[in-house]
């Protein structure tokens, strides 16, 4: 039965009131009735699509938003909302087309220019994305999302100074923003600027995530009465990242190391398993905070005392590169002590070999963990480790030939 004009007006008024109060679940079925009764009403379709966006029902929002954009060709908001829906659904080309229409309707809008940049990035068109962010920032030079996004693009192409300038500008508006501080810290650390970067890097601890935190006060470097717990912050203590951080960073501190059982015998430091009672501990700190808390630099890292005793004969291979033929290879981390040389990436068996004092070749890709520092060659972390670029087969073969 067809609805009367009065019934449609009543439904629409009730739906708008519910939406204004934040009750989108109550507004959506009313708006759906209005849209069914008035299938050519751009406003009704637009409101229905918006309600479904608020409810996270993006696939259902697409059809009414596409129709609304056709019936409201002169309303930029209809194009923008359609673009947002399409972006979430992964149709970035269609989203960009909608944003182009919105830009023609409303030139000089910073938000539209920024969203064009996001769509262009998703389409892997970084130069055009940067141009869009530049346009957004020419309209609003403090637009934080565009500053952050452009900083990422500049950093990806190696323009560290430009990226840092954008992040500094963003932080003038939001000086305590943890993700921005963390990003700036990571950029500084990748350049080897630990003095300025380590403090910002601590902002990671303010960001919610899958991170382990013991029920103890956080140690800030002060003297403590009682035992000090040093722990990997990864939720899975058996993960490669947790094992690697433990081997690399468990040094230079008078504390008890919380670690996976497989590492305890190699650390030559007091250890405790995760899940054990923490009675008697006064404070705790994550391993990756030690450089900040103890004032480490790449030139003044606490030394390690190698725990390996007798030389081996094989070559440990923990690299993704194919090994040369004819080598006596060992791929079992439990048999590292029989190796005279180890080749691998930034994984825990490679770190264990280096910590044991075995001559180790570490292959690092571009963008490797900032802890390694920006320089190749002898590593400051391990006396027995040498860093080579991943994928440089000639350098690896030359090094193997000399071993």
Please outline the helices and strands:
Elements lengths: L4 H16 L3 H14 L4 H13 L3 H14 L4 H13 L3 H14 L4 H13 L3 H14 L4 H13 L3 H14 L4 H13 L3 H8 L25 E5 L8 H10 L6 E3 L2 H4 L6 E2 L8 E6 L3 H5 L19 E5 L10 E2 L8 E6 L3 H8 L4 E5 L12 E2 L6 E5 L3 H10 L1
Parallel strand pairs: 1-2, 1-4, 2-3, 5-6, 5-7, 7-8, 8-10
Antiparallel strand pairs: 9-10
Write a brief structural summary.
By secondary structure, the protein is of the alpha/beta class.
Question: What descriptive keywords fit this protein?
Answer:
Serine Threonine Protein Phosphatase 5, Tetratricopeptide repeat; 3 domains; six-stranded mixed sheet; alpha/beta; 403 residues; 10 strands
Computed over alpha carbons, the radius of gyration is 28 Å
CATH architecture of the largest domain: Alpha Horseshoe
Nearest-integer average pLDDT: 92
Q: Largest sheet at a glance?
A: 6 strands, mixed
Protein structure class: alpha/beta
Beta strand %: 5-15%
Q: Tell me the number of strands.
A: 10
CATH topology assignment of the largest domain: Serine Threonine Protein Phosphatase 5, Tetratricopeptide repeat
Q: Widest sheet: strand order?
A: 6-5-7-8-10-9
Order of H and E elements: HHHHHHHHHHHHEHEHEEHEEEHEEEH
Query: Total helix count?
Result: 17
The overall number of domains is: 3
CATH-wise, what's the superfamily of the largest domain? Tetratricopeptide repeat domain
Q: For the record, what CATH class of the largest domain applies?
A: Mainly Alpha
Low-confidence stretches: none
Silhouette: elongated
Helix content: 40-55%
Instruction: Measure the end-to-end span.
Output: 88 Å
């Amino acid at each position: 039965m067809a609805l009367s004009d009065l019934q449609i007006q009543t439904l629409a008024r009730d739906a708008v009131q519910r939406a204004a109060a934040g009750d989108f679940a109550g507004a959506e079925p009313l708006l759906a009735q209005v849209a069914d009764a008035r299938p050519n009403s751009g406003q009704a379709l637009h409101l229905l699509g918006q309600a479904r966006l608020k409810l996270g029902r993006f696939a259902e929002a697409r059809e009414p938003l596409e129709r609304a954009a056709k019936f409201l060709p002169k309303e930029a908001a209809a194009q923008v909302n359609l673009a947002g829906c399409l972006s979430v659904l992964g149709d970035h080309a269609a989203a960009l087309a909608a944003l182009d229409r919105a830009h023609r309707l409303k030139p000089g809008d910073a938000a539209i220019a920024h969203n064009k940049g996001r769509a262009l990035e998703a389409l892997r068109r970084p130069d055009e994305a940067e141009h869009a962010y530049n346009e957004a920032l020419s309209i609003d030079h403090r637009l934080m999302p565009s500053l952050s996004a452009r900083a990422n693009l500049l950093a990806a192409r190696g323009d560290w100074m430009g990226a840092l300038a954008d992040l500094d500008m963003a932080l003038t508006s939001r000086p305590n923003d943890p993700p921005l501080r963390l990003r700036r810290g990571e950029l500084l650390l990748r350049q080897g600027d630990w003095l300025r970067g380590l403090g910002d890097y601590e902002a990671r601890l303010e960001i919610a995530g899958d991170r382990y935190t013991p029920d103890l006060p956080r140690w800030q470097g002060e003297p403590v009465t009682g035992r000090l717990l040093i722990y990997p912050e990864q939720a899975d203590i058996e993960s490669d990242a947790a094992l690697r951080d433990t081997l690399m960073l468990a040094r230079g501190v008078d504390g008890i190391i919380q670690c996976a059982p497989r590492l305890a015998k190699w650390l030559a430091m007091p250890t405790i398993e995760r899940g054990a009672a923490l009675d008697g501990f006064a404070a705790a700190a994550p391993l990756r905070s030690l450089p900040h808390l103890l004032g480490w630099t790449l030139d003044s890292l606490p030394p390690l005392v190698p725990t390996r005793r007798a030389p081996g004969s094989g070559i440990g291979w923990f690299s993704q590169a194919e090994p040369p033929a004819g080598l006596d290879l060992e791929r079992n981390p439990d048999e590292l002590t029989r190796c005279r040389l180890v080749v691998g990436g930034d994984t825990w068996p490679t770190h264990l070999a280096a910590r044991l004092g075995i001559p180790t070749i570490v292959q690092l890709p571009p963008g490797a963990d900032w802890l390694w520092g920006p320089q190749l060659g002898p590593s400051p972390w391990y006396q027995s480790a040498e860093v080579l670029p991943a994928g440089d087969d000639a350098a690896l073969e030359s090094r193997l030939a000399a071993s």
